[in-house]
Input
Amino acid sequence: MRENFLWGGAIAAHQAEGEWQTDGKGISVADVLTSGNHKKKREITKGIIAGKNYPNHFGIDFYNTYQEDLKLFEEMGFNGFRTSIAWTRIFPNGDEAVPNEAGLQFYDDLFDSLIEKGMAPIITLSHFEMPYHLVEAYGGWRSKKVIDCFVRFAEVVFEHYKSKVKYWMTFNEINNMFNPEDEFFSFVTGGLQYQADENKQQVMYQASMNQLIASAKVVEIGKKICSDFEIGCMLAFIPVYPFSSHPEDVLLAQQEMRSRYFYLDVHVHGEVPNYTKRLWEREKIVIDLSEEELQTLKNGTVDYISISYYMSNTVSSRVLQDQASSYKSSANVVDNPYLTASDWGWQNDPTGLRYALNELYYRYRKPIMIVENGLGAFDDVSNKEAIVDDYRIAYLKNHIKAMKQAMDEDGVDVLGYTSWGPIDIVSAGTGEMKKRYGFIYVDQDDFGQGTKQRYKKKSFEWYKSVIQTNAETLI
Ligand code: BG6
Output
């Protein structure tokens, strides 16, 4: 294990801060998402509609409570903390020339508090919160205009926080844009809303390339601003297993992995992989990519890979015969009979984390940061002073163990581990508060009602001891 291994937690601005219009903040894509649940999708409204519940408007009020919340993280021994800079606090519409000073000030104060408490800020530039104006005016990432807007935003924050932040990542879960049939992820990752009669694959690949170019540009710029910066990419890393040893299943799993590897191949190798070029030719997809942009991809490769890891997927080439799955990231996904699932249908697979880390490290030879891992669960909160979340402890314990095995036994270079939602926050996928990940309970319901008081769950002391002992007590 690295000496300066980063132990901590991760949140995103839009899921925690609240104060969605305070100090000049503009409307982001997260602000037009209503609440949903496991069975009911979040609605994407056209602007804000009075009377609807928009949970990201209130978050957990972190904008006002962060001083107190950080004290609790400090008590657990965090030496790293991941959050995002809400783009709309800095550029409310996204295409302004001049940043909003009040927004810059908020993150100055937040980062100062983190540093003072011994936590390195680990910062995502874009975590499902692009300015909504960029969607309305330009159609989101389908337009190259948005590249310039993002680069300006990144340049401003790099300059402004260069003495405070070393670890950056460009786009959260960039690969979640890959499936145009997934309206939610298309919207939050790419600001994409498809027309019925357009070639969706073409739009998706153009938007993805635009984002990859933007990422490479800011890596290049960031390194010039501060050579000490470590700038990474961020993937939702769900390894795909074949349902059986049938060669068609094995081949299918390999091909499905390309929806993850396409982004990594560009981020890390700086070029579009052949399998994607062949697909573009086959499907008559024409991507607007200049020679200069291709060079940018080469110049702006990432320093490290960061991932979220929650589950694995299993695919079958005979999906109709084999049983389907409650969590579908593609049409071929079926339930893995060897795994159990969370209440939201995510199949728990700690061994899959070890497998994923090995696959990634020996394919790319870049250090890896696990910036999200955790269990969203219903907690029994009848006694707020004593919430017993043994299932969460078990989930995290098994995953941290698997990470340690990947490091100690397999030699994978892991930079750090920040568990997702160390304090309960609004779920990105469903907008619920009751899908809780925290070591700290927040007394608030799905409608923003409650005292908002914070309570330590049983897992609080457990995670503290994991950090104190560098996870030695786990094995
Ligand atoms: C990842 C996101 O997809 O998973 C987070 O980066 C999100 O923003 C996390 O919160 C867990 O998902 P959910 O839907 O349970 O909040």
The pocket of 6-O-phosphono-beta-D-glucopyranose is lined by residues 12, 15, 128, 172-173, 236, 308, 372, 376, 420, 427-430, 435 (CB under 6 Å). The mean pLDDT is 96.
